[in-house]
Amino acid sequence: MLSKLHHAVTDKAASIVSSLARTNPLFAVCFSNMAPSSKVQDLYELCNNAFTPSGIPSQSSPALNKLCSLLDTIQPADIGLKEESPDDDRGHGFFGMNRLSRVARWSQPITYIDIYECDSFTMCIFCFPTSSVIPLHDHPGMTVFSKLLYGSLHVKAYDWVEPASIHNNKGSGYPPVKLAKLTVDKVLTAPCATSVLYPKQGGNVHCFTAVTPCAVLDILTPPYREYAGRKCTYYHDYPFSSFSTETGTEIGDGKEEEYAWLAEIDTPESLYMRPGVYAGPAINI
Question: Which of 76, 167, 217, 281 is positioned for an S-S bond with 247, CB 3.0–4.6 A?
């Protein structure tokens, strides 16, 4: 009897709350603020408190450690995604898409999903079909937190060698090459820890290749802004031996395979990307 009474009262209360929310916008806002916070909301608040348009705290900051710890707990469902299997490889990563034929799947684009952006940071998702690639590119003056949500992803990343070693090719139409050191060349498989790249270390110039269907949650701070000098540039990497004789450059540690010459290129025509719709919890600004 008490159980039936409890359910009746609960149902009645829910009905009253729903009615008030529909007829009174102020009540709806207040009630939403009382609801349990989502992980996306927690991410937004951490970023909003820690980041500014000019940069981030030091690498040892408790705020950055807390952000990485929270990212490590994020699951696809927390941001409105479902995990795809190799047999269901569409590269969309969110609910409501129709199945595509197995033949057509290889030409599917990477899906970019914008969660939130301001002058201090960007929160976004990249959903990769198998074998899709984001070519070698940089994040000038930026720090990027990347969380692999599901699947397997090959990451190849470089940092620029300091002091800079630049070789100007002979003849017009050939861009100069700049020496970089390989910092990451491996396959990541979820679940794994959050990866962080900083402006001058951690693999600021990197390439992603999807081994299986996969998705990556990225937080970039500060965001790309061409007027502020933060423009995405694409590169082609050449083996160290390609220009070592001409430049007279020598590697002190003898590990030439860990170095490459990078040349700027135009945005690759093979980069196939389209916008998607964010289907996760709303962020209360």
Answer: 167
